[in-house]
Design a protein that fits this description.
This protein is of the alpha/beta class. Helices cover 39% and strands 21% of the residues. A seven-stranded mixed beta sheet has the order 14-15-16-13-12-18-19, sandwiched between helices. Strands 9-8-7-10-11 form a five-stranded parallel beta sheet, sandwiched between helices. The chain has a three-stranded antiparallel beta sheet with strand order 5-6-21. Helix 3 crosses helix 4, helix 3 runs antiparallel to helix 6 and helix 4 runs parallel beside helix 5.
């Protein structure tokens, strides 16, 4: 592969109009340079939006099952290239190869699901209140859609938005994260190779300037965003001013409740995978462990023993359990939170420092565990986005739920218990878009809605048919075959 990459606009590869670039490096080994990418500006975004506009009429009028054939072919190519894409993704953003393979598999599943839904873009028919008249509502594409995604799932998350949007007949301008631009290109390349028409999908690389230009562009008809709460809130404000539909998936501070009757071995597996998988860099990471007092000390000891045995390193090494943080700024932020946690009175049980890995100068951080955490502490409230697990001790189910819900976020949640009554109460009581029973807070299936409540999002969902509900709009149709003027909602009783 070349070490200089370009935007993809209107079926052509091109650099930024300014010729400005930024470089991309391996977070496990920053001396390993992946390549240069265009540092795009509003002019580049405008060209991409124009290309998407020009392509919209033909793509939107293409029979939906024919659009689905291209998505299916893209999924087939993702499957053929799964290991290759996963290896390059690990090199670019750090998480272990076994995790990046799962990332690609999510995109494969989403491709096949979205392709199948092109034969089920359901509308509705309902009876009319008048004789000889039919009422229908059909789904129509929105138009040009801007997609901005984060770096931690750089193939899966774009697929959740792009495949349904394309299936519905929209055209796309996609800005991958500047921390994982190569993975975004590898994903889009499968659509190009599957035969997507020129202009239907366009890729513009860059940082804040490019993202802002896309959100503010007057010819963009909808925005899909996954990323931080701060950026998402700013996007929501702009889209509100412009009356642009927007789907937001932002932060999480996800609780895992472990009750006194839980299977602790199962809970241990869930806590380790949920807290330290992807180095804690998931919006669905298990960042709060809420333990019943009768099992707290035992489970904490189990977690400490298991976490201390985790192997840090290059994610493309077979022995690696935990990869690096994405960059030095992330490592510094995580360490600041660890220091704040100690200053506010939490007990550092393990970790809490940058980690050294032989032969690598990457952004590694020790798996970290806090106890004696209270809900008012900063590490109990703010998303750390690193391998830090905060543990709370509670005396009852009701107290556990109160602690779990005491946060601005509401993405994912879980409870470990053998009590079916508590399980169903938790499904009702936990303020989250997702609740797992006897599983950690992470994981998603392509045919299920994904998203959260409170400050995690704005009520929209990726995944499942819910995604199509955002990427389409209703058009209502009335067919009157009575041969006469019929007045709906008029009083039919004469004075």
């Amino acid at each position: 592969m070349p070490d200089t990459f370009e935007n993809y606009i209107g079926g052509r590869w091109t650099g930024a109009a300014s010729q400005a670039t930024f470089d991309n490096r391996n977070p496990a080994d920053p001396d390993d340079r992946i390549g240069d990418f265009p540092d795009s500006a509003p002019a580049d975004v405008d060209a991409a939006v124009q290309a998407a506009q020009d392509a919209f009429s033909d793509w939107g009028s293409t029979p939906a099952p024919d659009r689905g054939k291209i998505l299916k072919a893209s999924g087939d190519l993702l499957a053929e290239r799964k290991d290759e894409i996963a290896r390059s993704m690990t090199r670019e953003m750090g998480k272990p190869f076994f995790e990046t393979k799962g990332d690609v598999q999510e995109a494969i599943d989403t491709a096949y699901y979205a392709a199948s839904e092109t034969r089920r873009l359901f509308g509705t028919t309902v009876p009319s209140e008048l004789p000889d008249k039919m009422n229908m509502a059909i789904r129509r594409p929105l138009g040009v859609c801007g997609i901005i995604t984060a770096w931690n799932f750089p193939v899966a998350v774009p697929s959740w938005k792009i495949f349904p949007a394309l299936a519905a007949g929209n055209t796309i301008v996609f800005k991958p994260s500047e921390d994982a631009p190569h993975s975004g290109l590898r994903f889009v390349q499968t659509l190009i190779d599957a035969g997507i028409p020129d202009g239907v999908i366009n890729v513009v690389h860059g940082a804040d300037e490019a993202g802002q230009a896309l959100v503010e562009h007057p010819e963009v008809d909808a925005i899909g965003f996954t990323g931080s709460y701060e950026v998402g809130t700013a996007i929501a404000e702009t889209c509100g001013r412009l009356n642009t539909p927007v789907s937001l998936e932002m932060g999480g501070k996800n609780p895992m409740i472990v009750m006194d009757d839980a299977d602790l071995d199962l809970a241990l597996e869930g806590a380790i995978w949920g807290a330290y998988g992807t180095t804690g860099q998931r919006c669905t990471a298990t960042s709060r462990l809420i333990c019943h007092e009768s099992v707290h000390d035992e489970l904490v000891a189990m977690i400490r023993d298991e976490a201390e045995a985790l192997v840090l390193g290059d994610g493309n090494d077979a022995d690696t359990d935990v990869g690096p943080l994405i960059n030095q700024a992330a490592a510094e932020t995580v360490h600041q939170y660890v220091e704040i946690g100690q200053e506010e009175g939490a007990t550092l049980e393990m970790g809490g420092a940058p980690a050294s890995v032989d032969g690598l100068d990457g952004h590694f951080y020790e798996p970290t565990l806090f106890t004696d955490v209270t809900p008012d502490m900063t590490i109990a409230q703010e998303e750390i986005f690193g391998p830090v697990l905060a543990t709370f001790e509670v005396g009852s189910y009701d107290e556990a739920v109160t602690v779990a819900n005491d946060t601005q976020y509401g993405l994912s949640s879980s409870i470990y218990t053998q009590d079916v009554n508590k399980s169903f109460r938790a499904m009702r009581d936990l303020e989250a878009g997702i609740t797992y029973v006897n599983g950690p807070t992470i994981g998603a299936e392509a045919h299920m809605p994904f998203g959260g409540v409170k400050d995690t999002g704005n009520g929209q969902r990726d995944g499942g048919y819910a995604a199509f509900e955002f990427w389409t709009e209703h058009k209502t149709l009335y067919v009157d075959y009575s041969g006469q003027l019929q007045k709906a909602q008029m009083d039919s009783v004469e004075d």
